[in-house]
Amino acid sequence: MIAIVYTKPECFSIQDVQEPKPGPRQVMVRVKRCGICKTDLHIHHGRFISQFPLTPGHEFCGEIVEVGSGVAEWKPGDRVTCDNTVVCGCCYYCRRNQPLYCQNFYSLGCTGPGGLAEYALVNADKAFRIPDHMSFDEAAFTEPLSCVVHGVDMLDPKCGDKVLIFGAGPAGLLLSQLVQHCGAALVVVVAPTQFKLDVLNKLGVKHTVLMRRNDLTSHVEAVRALAPEGYDIVVDATGTPQIIEHAFQFTKMGSKVLIYGVCNEEDLIQVKPYWLFRNEIKLIGSFAQTHCFDRAISYLDQRVVCVDGVITHRVGLKEYAKALTLLADGKENLKIIVHPTE
Ligand SMILES: [Zn+2]
Ligand SMILES: [Zn+2]
Question: What is the pLDDT of residue 71?
Answer without folding.
Answer: 98
